[in-house]
Recover the amino acids of this structure.
């Protein structure tokens, strides 16, 4: 489960998107968790509700529209 926060990280007056939590990777059937990984991803607000990824602690990717 991911936690979602909107925070003005760089002081530009726009709220940036911060996603954090634990990612559970399962086996092929999806029945058993085989690995857990902490996850943090930061998306900078580029105006008009557009975001650009500026940091990710994992290769796992989240599509933000």
């Amino acid at each position: 489960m991911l936690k979602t926060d909107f925070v003005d990280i760089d002081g530009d007056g726009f709220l940036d998107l911060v996603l954090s939590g634990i990612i559970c990777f399962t086996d092929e059937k999806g029945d058993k968790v085989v690995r857990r990984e902490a996850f943090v991803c930061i998306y900078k607000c580029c105006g008009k509700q557009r975001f650009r990824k500026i940091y990710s602690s994992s290769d796992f990717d989240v599509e933000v529209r």
User: Anything to note?
Assistant: The chain is about 0% helix and 55% strand. The two ends are 19 Å apart (CA to CA).
